[in-house]
Each structure stands twice: as structure tokens, then as C-alpha cells.
Amino acid sequence: HQEPGYTIYETREGPYALLVSLNAAGTAFGTAYVDDGISFPPGPSRCLTFQAAEGTLKIESKGEYAIQQKLETITVLGAQKPAQVTVQGWMVQEWTYEEATEELVVSNASVNLNGQVTLSWR
Asked: Beta strand 70-77 with 16-21: parallel, antiparallel or unpaired?
């Protein structure tokens, strides 16, 4: 989802946030379709596939539309408390974990959604 702005343009230009809700088995799956939101008929687009399992979230990206906005916040519900969090193998410094709700929040991730991405929590 995106943070709403005062206008449609402002909303469209803002960063993305992703909410992942793991099931009892610790997995989740979802897809998202992204295009410019104004062309008719629709032009180039991008399909994002999200798969989470065993402490890893994989984002696969296919299509011709170039997403300019970054994925800034990733929230994982139902996660086990990690000792470390990585994106593309790099240690992430800005993350929090709420034990009572099993909520992992990665902030300021600046993930490019035009390629493959892996987030891991261990």
C-alpha cells in the first residue's frame, strides 16, 4: 500500500509499504499488479510476486513498467524474533520487533521493485 497524499499525484509519487501476514505454518503468498494508473488502454505493467517461508521473503518482479517508487517499509506479522535481518545479503540496521504481536518492521529499506529481492530474518 501507499501512504495517501493530498492529491492522486502525491499518493502515486510516495513510497510503498508491504504488510506480510504469515499463516500458522509461517508462510504467505501474494501478488501485485503495477502500472502508471492513468493510461487507457493500460500500457506497460509489472507483476510482483511475494513468497514468504522459513524466515525469508522473496519478491519476484516481471514486466516492462519501471516502478520509480521504492519499497520503504516491510512489516511481517507472525515472525519469530530474529537476531539479524538482511536484504540482498546486507545487514539491515533499521528494524524493530514486537514480541507480544510477533511483528517485525523493517524501516527505510529503499528496495527497488524492478528486480528480484530477498529479505531474511534469522
From this structure: parallel
Reading the block at residue 64, the C-alpha cell is 516492462
The answer to whether 50 touches 20, Cβ cutoff 8 Å, is yes
Q: How far is CA 9 from CA 13, 34, 79, in A?
A: 6, 15, 34
Which pLDDT tens digit goes with each residue over 45-70? 999 999 999 999 999 999 999 999 99
Closest CA to 99 of 121, 119, 75, 82: 82
Distance CA 122, CA 53 (A): 12
CA 111 to CA 94: how far, in whole Å?
Answer: 13
Query: Look-up: residue for cell 487507457?
Result: 40
Residue with cell 510503498: 16
pTM of the model: 0.91
